[in-house]
Amino acid sequence: FTDDDAARKADPQVLALAATDPANPYGAALDWPEAVVLESSTKHRPGRKAGAVVVLVDGALTLYLERGGKTALAFASDPALLHLAAEAVAALVQRKAVDSLVVEKVNGDSVLSSEELVTAVRDGLLAGGFYQTPKGVRMRAPVGGGRG
Question: What is the distance between the alpha carbons of residues 81 and 74, in angstroms, rounded to a whole number?
Answer without folding.
Answer: 10
